[in-house]
Specification:
It is a single chain. This protein is mostly helical. The protein contains eight helices and no strands. The protein has helices at 4-27, 32-52, 58-88, 94-117, 141-155, 165-185, 193-222, 227-259. Helix 3 packs antiparallel against helix 4. The longest helix has 33 residues, at 227-259. It is flat, with a radius of gyration of 20 Å.
């Protein structure tokens, strides 16, 4: 199949990027930006896996999928706490800040311990053999069909509302996957510029809603008694939900126009 080696090389490049960002994260002392960049490198690779999944044998991707998911999950709550602190520290009491710090400390230690135990493991040593879509170098019918399938999944509406954490997260993650694919595989396509702009606008607004949902859940789980903070979050939830829902409608219209439906 034409393009097998080229696609496998793209996968290899992104596996190397995960190792690079992991090293930077460790050397930086696990600061906010380095953890974000490490997670983004994993997201980019997993977006490629998602796109090419029909063309990869399950036995080839399950191991690397599980390992990348493990590191992603281990950094998830740390990242959520960092985002919470960065966005709402001005509304937090000192007691809340102290409690959040105590929650984050063992999470960081667990991550450090795991990385120390698996020091010899490199993502780039995992070899993935990917069958390219038919006529992929010319972005032929099969490739385009898969791309359009993802866009169609994004615009499919469900009964749940944008205030629901799981729903808004799923829509945002689909938008990010599509953006990653467009950036990595279709960067030369000018006809996707408007679609990309609207998807990016949506995912930014959706992130605000999701972050607030996560923060409210965090407050409930750890029983943070902080009236000013809770009031601020509830107000933001209403505001951001309306903005994300409006942007979703605009984005869907642009995608429908691109798909000619």
């Amino acid at each position: 199949m034409v393009g097998d080696k080229r696609v496998s090389a793209i996968m290899q490049k992104h596996l190397e990027a995960i190792d690079e960002q992991k090293d930077k994260m460790i050397k930086s002392g696990f600061n906010h930006i380095s953890i974000h960049n490490f997670r983004e490198s994993i997201r980019q690779f997993r977006a490629l896996i998602y796109f090419y999944m029909p063309n990869i044998r399950p036995s080839d991707y399950r191991v690397i999928e599980n390992i990348s998911k493990k590191y992603f999950n281990m950094t998830s709550l740390i990242r959520e706490i960092d985002v919470f602190e960065n966005g709402y520290s001005d509304s937090m009491t000192e007691a809340t800040k102290e409690k959040i710090g105590l929650i984050k400390e063992p999470l960081l230690q667990n991550l450090k311990d795991e990385l120390a135990e698996t020091r010899g493991f490199l993502f780039q040593n995992v070899k993935l053999h990917v069958k390219a879509f038919e006529k992929e170098p010319e972005k032929g019918p099969c490739f385009v069909s898969r791309q359009c399938e993802l866009l169609s999944l994004f615009i499919d509406r469900e009964e749940e509302q944008f205030g629901e954490e799981k729903y808004i997260h799923n829509k945002r993650m689909m938008a990010k996957k599509i953006l990653y694919i467009h950036e990595m595989l279709l960067s030369d396509r000018k006809d996707l510029n408007e679609v990309n702009l609207e998807l990016e606008s949506f995912q930014e607004k959706a992130k605000q809603v999701h972050d607030v949902c996560v923060n409210l859940r965090f407050i409930g789980k750890y029983r943070l008694d902080d009236e000013v903070l809770i009031t601020k979050l509830v107000r933001d939830h209403v505001l951001f939900t309306g903005q994300a829902a409006g942007q979703y409608d605009v984005t869907c219209d642009v995608i429908k126009s691109y798909l000619k439906i």
